[in-house]
Structure formats: structure tokens, C-alpha cells
UniProtKB/TrEMBL annotation:
Native organism taxonomy: Bacteria, Bacillati, Bacillota, Clostridia, Lachnospirales
Pathway in which the depicted protein is active: Carbohydrate biosynthesis; gluconeogenesis
UniProt name for this protein: L-serine deaminase
Catalysed reactions, as listed in the record: L-serine = pyruvate + NH4(+)
A family per Pfam: SDH_beta
Keyword line: 4Fe-4S, Gluconeogenesis, Iron, Iron-sulfur, Lyase, Metal-binding
Domain annotation ACT: ranges: 146-220
InterPro entries noted in UniProt: ACT-like_dom_sf, ACT_dom, ASB_dom_sf, Fe-S_L-Ser, Fe-S_L-Ser_bsu, Ser_deHydtase_bsu
Family indicated by similarity: Belongs to the iron-sulfur dependent L-serine dehydratase family.
A GO molecular function held by the record: L-serine ammonia-lyase activity
Needed cofactors: [4Fe-4S] cluster
Amino acid sequence: MSIFDIVGPVMVGPSSSHTAGAVRIGYICYKLMDEPIYKVEIGLYGSFLATGKGHGTDKALVAGLLGMKPDDIRVPQSFELAKEAGMEFSFYEAKLAHANPNTVALHMTGESGRELDIVAESVGGGRIRICKIDGLDANFSGDYPTLIVHNLDQPGHVTEVTSMLGHKSINIATMQLYRACPGGHAVMVLECDQEVPKESLKWLEHLEGILKVTYLSLKE
């Protein structure tokens, strides 16, 4: 445990879980979209729904979706800034089972028409976890460059992805594999120590059996 885990993040308050964590969730979603967000439907669950308005959770999420970080002094003005940017946003009560009380479900549409569904939770101290992407388990923190590959559950895809990363001298910090059912849709989640080049992402997208490639870059 570091000193930052004890004293908490540098942030616009009042709450590290309901405000700073919410901004970070929005920011990681913004980075995963990799383009300006045109429209977003935000489902609040549990404590996020019950006490979020008092803690500014709603404004914090929108701020992150605009690309703000937890210490950005503009967080309280996020609704006005979103309207100026042309981003449509709405809130509803999310119906989730066995979820962390500080959980949010987001359905985002980018300016190109690309859509992305995220379920994420704030776990305290400004830390978060991305739980699901497009309905499949993901389970990563957003602390590392992260490659998410949706593919058909067929032999060879894991080797294709890991070989590409090895060829680019990219070290894998963690790797998780999930699938809906044998032979169905599957997902690989790889947290990396280095950034993955864009041309490598494009190469993956064109492989047979690869359904979707989503990438979290930590470059500013």
C-alpha cells in the first residue's frame, strides 16, 4: 500500500469514491472510446443512485466523459460544458445483479457512430474497476495500457495476440480470458507495460475471427 492509498487522490471533492472515482470511470470510458462522445446513457446503481447527486457523482461522470481528470476544477460545471460540446447525456436507474454499490452502466455513442457499453465500479480511494465491456467480463483497473480483444472462441487467437505483442517488445503485465460459452464469443483482456502501436491494433482488427478491438491508451 502506498501513501496515496492512505491519503487518497488529488481531486475535486467531496468524495473519493463517489466523486473522484466517478470522474475516473468517465475518463477511462472516454479513453476507451478514442473519439468524442456524441451521446451517453448513464445507469446509476446502489449508492451511486441513492446518494450520488449529493456527492456530485452525476457531474463527475460527465466530466470524465469529456476528458477531465479528478483534479480538474471544471468538474462542477460539466453539465454546461457537455451541452456546449454537443454531448447528449441522460440518467436512469440501472438494474444490476450482485454489483458493487458504487456501480454505473454506460451506453456510449461516438461521433463516428461507434458504440460501446461499459459497466464499471468505484472501489474506494479514487480507484476503479472496469467490470464489463459490451456485455462480457473485463475486470481491469485502468492503471495500465490495456488491450481488449473480442473474438470467436476458436484455437489460435490467443497466440496471434501474444505473438504480436512479443514481436513489438511489449510485456504483458496481466492477461485474462473470458467466454460466454464454448465456441461462442470470447474476450481477452491484456494489461501491458508499454503502449501498443496503432498499426498493430489495425492489424488485429482485420484478422479472421476477431470481432472487435478496444484499446485503453494512457498517452495524454
